[in-house]
Amino acid sequence: MASNKFDVEATTLMVEELRGTFNAGKTRSYEWRVAQLKGIIKMMDDREQEIIEALRLDLGKPEFESAVYEIGMLKSSCARALKELKHWMMPEKVKSSIVAFPSSAEIVSEPLGAVLIISAWNYPILLSLDPIVGAVAAGNVAVLKPSEIAPASSSLLAKYVPEYLDSSAIRVVEGGVPETTALLDQKWDKIFYTGNGRVGRIVMAAAVKHLTPVVLELGGKSPVIVDSDVNLKVAVKRIIAGKWGLNNGQACISADYIITTKDFVPKLVDSLKHQLEKFYGINPLESKDLSRIVNSNHFDRLTKLLDEEKVSSKIIHGGQSDRAQLKIAPTILLDVPEDSLIMSEEIFGPLLPILTVDRLEESFDFIRSRSKPLAAYLFTNRKKLKDEFVRTISAGGIAINDIALHLVVPSLPYGGVGESGMGSYHGKFSFDVFSHKKSVLYRSFVADAPARYPPYSQGKLRL
Ligand code: NAD
């Protein structure tokens, strides 16, 4: 079955076929895994322009962002896996115990079996294929369900994945809720879901039925604390790149809101306005360097956040929008009420509220009083503040003096905590998350200790 049309029976048959491939052992060899990783790189190279075009159709994504943050990141993920795979696959020798003397012990990474990857729309190529990198590197068969909200990217994946990867082991199923529900009804060895927490709960509930482990890559409100002791010019450029430069704020680890001090906020706001104009011009709705909003539902959701009565008067920069083109300008709001909608839900778009406090330390309590975010950021030169932030703020990941860049360090695990998700991937963590770590103990027949065998006695207990 090539992929695609929703059908419960066909879904069951597809999973059976995939399990047949897995059980035949085809996906376990080093060579098979390498061929799939090379296939992904070749697909990126051969189809680069078509991918850029699909991302332009789905999101108006600037070519630079598509080339760097989707294609480039995916290729470097494959390249790293290719470089390290032999080493990752090797059993890890570990110390045995005196209780089992003489013996040796090792941890063997084995593939889990059949895995389901459900992906989101905002980075529709990267978020679909990067988990596949981990799944195939670890020797699994997989079904990928891209997001229907990015239809051009989804159909591109359905068209080219079978051409570049082994379709007896990797399938793409397009569709929305009914198709995903049918997939979730199957028995999987792992479900890897990227998206919002509401659906994350549906995924987890479905997984319970078969006792399937899940990875949930969710979102949240990622805060940015800005101290007055900073290199303001650099900080502001990085904040803009980490907010509007990431898909116009439609990124899970982009800056959701800023907290700074009342004294410092005028300087910060001036600098943000100045730099935004330098980057995107005086009419940002015309800028070719900003993605548009993905669809009218999300456009309406975002403008509703701005329309709330207690919020609309707080706009100090931007605020322009064009529904016909699904564009919203970079917008800054100052001191919105904490109980407003914009401060209650993840923004996931080009709106940036700034909250102010008397002493910066108060911002730590504010963050700690809310759900644990996917990312938390601090801009400061002060070592004491950095130390306290890292020690006391719980988040999926932290970057100091930058935004989102921790994501590109493959030796760091990428994932959430609490409401922002569970499980992590990237680099070797991607291999590990799709592997079972099997404990293996090797014993010989020599030196068999009689004390463990009955009849038991007080004397044996004292040994
Ligand atoms: P989305 O609407 O594309 O949904 C994600 C997936 O869930 C899709 O494949 C969709 O078909 C499926 N889905 C939707 N409703 C479903 C249902 N009722 N039952 C089963 N499946 C269903 O994406 P989204 O949720 O709007 O994505 C945005 C969210 O994802 C944000 O919260 C963002 O922070 C988060 N996100 C997280 C990461 C990460 O790496 N942690 C990356 C991107 C996005």
From TrEMBL:
PROSITE patterns according to UniProt: ALDEHYDE_DEHYDR_GLU
Reaction catalysed by this enzyme: an aldehyde + NAD(+) + H2O = a carboxylate + NADH + 2 H(+)
GO BP term, pick one: aldehyde metabolic process
One function term, GO molecular function aspect: aldehyde dehydrogenase (NAD+) activity
GO cellular component: cytoplasm
Protein family: Belongs to the aldehyde dehydrogenase family.
Protein name: Aldehyde dehydrogenase
Organism expressing this protein natively: Nepenthes gracilis
